[in-house]
């Protein structure tokens, strides 16, 4: 049986990790490279880094911080934010990332998915989707609409139609980020996560809302996700107690979720 993955998510502003609720009211947490090293030492499976102001500010991604984080971690590292072209993708990979996340620009120019997949391989291209439950209506048969630009702009795209198109264009993974649940610690939106997992044949990553071990387990089992993006539970100052990767993995294994176990590494 394939093991599930825990992916630490960094919303980065000027080289520092921040934490928001429903894409608003970001509070400062720590320098991205320091937090990355700490979580790598605690055996996180992967890290995803979003330069969350790059698209809105119409500027290139913060490559200096990408390089700084890449120097400290040796697990799969995904980077997104401000990716507008094949050249941007190349720059991010050259800076140390292993995967590229596309979101707003993919909606504006879907060909960036196919171009990236052709140049670097499907496994390098991750389609991240910001979705909101707007109810079933004309044009939105799933009841979930895709938003872009930090959840500020509605696109009129149905979430299921969009992820299917993204897969057809060459995306190797799909992130389902619930705007309604983001930073709320109320649990993933399992309904849309499962709907996406049923609609595509590539790995699906649950995102937005994990506040307990039970939430993570539900996203990975009931939601059908291959991986869970976590942030608040690991490091948010809004939490009374953060939970380390070792404790998370042990608890998930205990309830039957197949995980790569935390292991004691030899001292150098």
Keywords:
10 helices; TIM Barrel; eight-stranded parallel beta barrel; alpha/beta; 268 residues
List the helices and strands and how they pair.
Elements lengths: L4 E9 L2 E6 L2 E8 H10 L4 E6 L11 H8 L6 E4 L5 H9 L4 E4 L1 H5 L2 H10 L4 E9 L10 E5 L4 E6 H11 L3 E6 L11 H10 L4 E4 L5 H9 L5 E4 L1 H4 L9 H10 L14
Parallel strand pairs: 1-4, 1-12, 4-5, 5-6, 6-7, 7-10, 10-11, 11-12
Antiparallel strand pairs: 1-2, 2-3, 7-8, 8-9
Helix pairs in contact: 1-2
Structure description:
The chain is of the alpha/beta class and 268 residues long. The chain has one domain (5-254): Alpha-Beta Barrel (TIM Barrel), CATH 3.20.20. The chain contains 10 helices and 12 strands. It has helices at 32-41, 63-70, 86-94, 104-108, 111-120, 159-169, 190-199, 213-221, 232-235, 245-254; strands at residues 5-13, 16-21, 24-31, 46-51, 77-80, 99-102, 125-133, 144-148, 153-158, 173-178, 204-207, 227-230. It has an 8-stranded parallel beta barrel with strand order 1-4-5-6-7-10-11-12, surrounded by 6 helices. Helix 7 links the parallel strand 10 and strand 11. Helix 1 (32-41) runs parallel beside helix 2 (63-70). The longest helix is centred in the middle third of the chain and has 11 residues, at 159-169. The radius of gyration is 17 Å and the shape is globular. The two termini are 32 Å apart. The mean pLDDT is 93.
Short description:
The protein is an alpha/beta fold and 268 residues long.
Structural class: alpha/beta
Order of helices and strands: EEEHEHEHEHHEEEHEHEHEHH
How are the strands of the largest sheet arranged? 1-4-5-6-7-10-11-12
Count of folded domains: 1
Number of helical segments? 10
Helix content: 25-40%
Q: Could you name the CATH homologous superfamily?
A: Aldolase class I
Average pLDDT rating: 93
- CATH-assigned fold name: TIM Barrel
Q: How widely separated are the two ends?
A: 32 Å
Query: How would you describe the shape?
Result: globular
Strand content: 25-35%
